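Retro notes (design track)

What went well: tokenization of the new backbones is finally stable.
What didn't: we kept losing track of which sequence belonged to which structure.
Fix going forward: every design gets posted as structure first, then sequence, in one message. First example under the new rule, 435 residues:
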């Protein structure tokens, strides 16, 4: 018998097939060639027929030249760290595309001279929090805190409650972060209770500032006590408040989550926050506060290493000035509307032979914000056996398994993606007979 491997086409012959011309132009030769070689290996192993090589390559070519894959977040966790935190609004996405080419990021089109970097973004940030005398942007909130400690406290002391020496993820810890700047930590209070006189007794000539950190990824209850910013502001040292999740003004659904405007009104000299959590924008560190400390941070040499690029500036400005981003929209979504969407999806799935029903569920904020808050929602419940097939479809769908069923929470799925979600479940069910 003829060895089927003799029928395997040469790599260069496949690459010259006209059907791959568009992919080569869009994705580049190396990526397409890598896909061709992977498919040819499957043919050599007898897993594919030789006459299906080109069609298989076309089918497997990615949508873009990045290894990142777009997914549908049906977990019900609005700010999902493992899925990239906040999804950008359409306005922010368009702003990123516009800024991807040459832009006037540091250029004045009227005078023809150099201009302050990202001045329209800075203006939008200042307008969003009028209580701030000055604002600044870094590449994330940890960077904002490091810059504050370096510019304001290197070689001096930062007073912090022992109950706020938190770990922020991936085993990075606030005390390690701060001490790396050359500042010294003066710990006060205990794990569960810290009082204003603990701070007052610790203030000395070497004190740079009091740091108040919102423990945004956990809660304490029971015999606990902490000192709010408005009380700390009565002491003789400036207060830096790390609010974490990036709420700029109070939100009725997040009553216990601190916000930048309220903290500044309470007397904080500086407030730091994340841009890619509750604000719903790109990854960025947001700094609000008094002019003098913000300017010291802005002009410190480390600020250059922590500055953001033009894409972030564009996305942040569009998030601040454009229509509501997906994160705040998901938080404010009406459960009646969510229930109607889930019912429609479940009905279509049943009509296509998939066991499905709309069920009540609880959604979460996620991303280290409002850990105690859950939101009433509605999910589409399907067989848990579909979890893995849905993760490996061309547009992966990520849900959560609960009580033996896979829940697809529509709160974190855009209504414009309902059809894509439905089609993915139907396709996964057909490929999984046991479901």
């Amino acid at each position: 018998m003829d060895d089927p491997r003799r029928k395997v086409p040469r790599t260069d012959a496949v690459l010259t097939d006209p059907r791959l011309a568009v992919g080569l132009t869009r994705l580049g030769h190396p990526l397409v060639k890598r896909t061709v070689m992977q498919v040819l290996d499957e043919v050599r192993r007898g897993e594919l027929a030789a006459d299906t090589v080109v069609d298989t390559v076309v089918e497997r070519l990615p949508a873009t030249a990045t290894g990142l894959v777009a997914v549908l977040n049906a977990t019900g966790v609005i700010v999902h760290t493992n899925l990239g935190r906040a999804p950008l609004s359409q306005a922010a996405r368009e702003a990123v595309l516009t800024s991807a080419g040459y832009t006037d990021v540091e250029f004045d089109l009227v005078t023809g001279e150099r201009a302050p970097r990202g001045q329209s973004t800075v203006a939008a940030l200042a307008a969003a929090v009028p209580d701030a005398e000055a604002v600044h942007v870094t590449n994330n909130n940890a960077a904002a805190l490091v810059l504050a400690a370096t510019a304001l406290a290197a070689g001096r002391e930062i007073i912090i409650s022992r109950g706020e020496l938190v770990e922020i993820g991936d085993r990075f810890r606030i005390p390690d972060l701060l001490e790396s700047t050359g500042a010294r930590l003066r710990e006060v209070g205990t794990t569960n209770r810290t009082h204003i006189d603990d701070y007052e007794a610790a203030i000395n000539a070497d004190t740079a500032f009091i740091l108040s950190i919102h423990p945004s990824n956990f809660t304490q209850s029971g015999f606990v006590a902490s000192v709010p910013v408005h009380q700390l502001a009565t002491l003789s040292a400036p207060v830096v408040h790390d609010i974490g999740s990036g709420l700029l003004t109070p939100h009725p659904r997040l009553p216990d989550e601190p916000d930048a405007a309220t903290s500044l009104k309470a007397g904080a000299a500086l407030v730091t926050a994340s841009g890619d959590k509750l604000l719903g924008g790109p990854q960025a560190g947001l700094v609000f506060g008094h002019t003098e400390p913000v300017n010291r941070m802005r002009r410190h040499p480390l600020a250059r290493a922590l500055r953001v690029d033009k894409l972030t500036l564009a996305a942040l400005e569009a998030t601040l000035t454009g229509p509501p981003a997906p994160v705040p929209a998901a938080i404010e979504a009406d459960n009646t509307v969510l229930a109607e969407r889930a019912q429609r999806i479940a009905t279509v799935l049943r009509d296509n032979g998939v066991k499905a029903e709309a069920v009540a569920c609880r959604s979460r904020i996620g991303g280290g914000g409002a850990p105690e808050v859950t939101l009433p929602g509605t999910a589409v419940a399907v067989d848990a056996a579909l979890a893995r097939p849905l993760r490996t479809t061309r547009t992966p769908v990520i849900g959560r398994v609960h009580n033996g069923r896979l829940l697809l929470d529509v709160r974190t799925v855009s209504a414009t993606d309902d059809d894509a979600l439905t089609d993915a479940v139907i396709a996964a069910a057909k490929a999984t007979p046991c479901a």
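Added context from the reviewer: The chain has three domains: 4-58, 72-84+328-430, 90-323.
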